[in-house]
Amino acid sequence: MNDPSGFTLSGGRITSVDPVTVMFNGATWYETPHMILAAYMVAGGLAATPYAVGLLRGHRDRYNRLGFLLPFTVAAIATPFQIAVGDTAARAVASQQPVKFASMEYVPVTSRGVPEWIGGIWYHGHVVPGTGLSLPDVDSLLVGFSPHTKVIGWDSVPASLRPPFPTFIHLSFDVMVGIGTLMLLWGLWLAVWWWRRRDLPGGRLGTVFLAGGALSGIAAVVAMEAGWMVTEVGRRPWTVYGVLLTTQAATKASGVVGTLVVTVVIYGLLTVATFGILFLMQRRWRAGPGQADVPVPYEAAR
Amino acid sequence: VIADTVAAVLVLVAIAYAALAGADFGGGIWDLLAGSTTRGRAPRERIDHSITPVWESNHVWLIIALVLLWTGFPGAFAAIFTTLFVPLSVAALGIVLRGAGFAFRSQVQTLRWQRFSGAVFALSSLLTPFFLGTAIGAIVTGRVRGAAGDPVSSWVNPSSLLTGALFVATSAYLAAVYLATDSERAGEPGLRRYFTRRALAAAVLAGLLAAITMAVLHTAAARVFSILTGGRALPLVVLSVLAGVAAAVLLALDKTRLTRLLAALAVTAVIWGWALAQYPLLLPPRLTVHDAAAPAGAGVAELVVVGIIVVLVGPSFVLLYSLAQRGTLSEPDVR
């Protein structure tokens, strides 16, 4: 959808398809590794979280240390590769989907010497003063390794073909990159302590390290979702970039709103139920192994 | 040729879904009808044990069918899902709630919540095959025509509603036959008789509904009707009736061997017969398989994927079913 290829359109109909080219399109080589590495970071962070909490509570036994170290190391190893892949992906987006890139980086007008914005709220044609930090020429440097690199702005297309909410897209991008950078720092922190002392980071900041470890699961999920927001909202108004607008792709059937409301309500209830069940299971396991089995359908609880 | 092959695979997958997941829905229907918490405990336990290892994997077939439909026949998929979004949404929600209710039932602790999630499971087991049936009924009788089909009258009509009821009765029949065999295997003759009685009742009901549906199809889908009753699909209809009656007779004689195969054969034959009767039309009255097909490249890719699925999923299913049949998968503390 980001770099559609491998098909022939004629008169609004697809007349021939080359499945291999469709699947291995120009965006596949960076999007796929980006998501696979993200999956390792999310899984690693989430699996490490409960053990980090255990360590924070003072249970510094082998069980909690191993339970934390194994998954966290996996996430930490994935992180530098992820940053390299993400950096390459951003350059690919700058050339394949320049308008999406312009929204990610606040580039209103095609120009050279484009600054890199960190944070910042976009309002009425400029960043609200004091809400963000501007690094001169850095965006041009990142895109083409030279401050004179020309970066295409969103003025290259009419307003109707630009994504909505540049602030949302840009801040989502910043959140993803920021969390990734923190994960890199935490991985280095662990690597240094392990290299010097064969131990988890301790000292006065040891608690800060573990608190970060305990948050790494949620943070990784937030980073992944923020990344999805960047790529999906950033592609608006296109569903298939340059080929099919979302308004053209939408169903003509009535009842969309009703179906959406019902779906959201039911999945909301299921989410509540899932957490309720997890809570019940936790309480049961705490109570001891004898409580673990549940009578088969419909026998009163003991 | 490619489009025809994809369509044939689609029918085979639909058969697998009907014969396997259909029985899971039927299990839920018998759970719904099992009566009070004390009286219904034994059959509910049997149903629970039989469904637990397989119900999630049986939905693989629905997913394959959907993917084949939307990649192989995108125009038909769009027409079906925009016209029939009401019954298909209800069926989809039923599938979701059914799984959730079934899984949650074994985790909640109090009787009240067990009954609640059990009721969600059982009710959605009834709703899902019914609404899938109404959708098929709408397709057979030619009420899905592009995106302009009516969202209500397309499925609220005698032939669609009858097809829905027929799907429910058939699911219940399949489930009762399978459960009777499972009870026999588990050494529970009382439960075997319990499910045998229900299998016979469901067989009679399904037979009656099939006859009435056919009578309605006589006018609502004249072409399909004439091929089913006198054309190339007749042998399959006869085979289905014979297999269904044979299974019922064996059950009445308290025999459980072969009954499952015969019951599955009855369902297989009738679905294949319907497909044959409707061919070359994908969406009557006009859209043919050939016209609805995606470009050849997509069809070839699908067949390759189906080949991979057969290689990967086939052995897994054989293993799953042989383990489930040997009872190796039930938890020791539950039995």
Description of the molecule:
The complex is a heterodimer of chains A (302) and B (335). Chain A has 302 residues and is mainly α. Chain A has a two-stranded antiparallel sheet. In chain A, strands 3-8 form a two-stranded antiparallel sheet. In chain A, strands 4-7 form a two-stranded antiparallel ribbon. In chain A, strand 1 and strand 2 form a beta hairpin. Chain A is globular and about 65 Å long. The model of chain A has no long low-confidence stretch (mean pLDDT 91). Chain B is mainly alpha-helical. Helix content of chain B is 77%, strand content 1%. Chain B has 13 helices and 2 strands, in the order αααααααααααββαα. Chain B has a two-stranded antiparallel sheet. In chain B, helix 1 packs antiparallel against helix 6, helix 1 packs across helix 7 and helix 8 runs antiparallel to helix 10. The N and C termini of chain B lie far apart (51 Å). At the A-B interface, strand 2 and helix 9 of A face helix 2, helix 4, helix 5, helix 6 and helix 13 of B.
Q: SSE order of chain A, as H and E?
A: EEHHHHEEEEEHEHHEEHH
Number of helices of chain B: 13
Intertermini distance of chain A: 55 Å
Beta-strand level of the residues of chain B, as a percent range? under 5%
Whole-angstrom Rg of chain A: 24 Å
Radius of gyration of chain B: 20 Å
Helix content of chain B: over 70%
The 3D shape of chain B can be described as globular
* Largest sheet: spatial strand order of chain A: 1-2
> In percent terms, what proportion of residues of chain A is strand?
5-15%
Helix coverage percent of chain A: 55-70%
Oligomer: heterodimer
* Class from secondary-structure proportions of chain B: mainly alpha
Give the averaged pLDDT of chain A, no decimals. Answer: 91
Number of strands of chain B: 2
Which two chains touch over the largest interface?
A-B, 30 and 40 residues
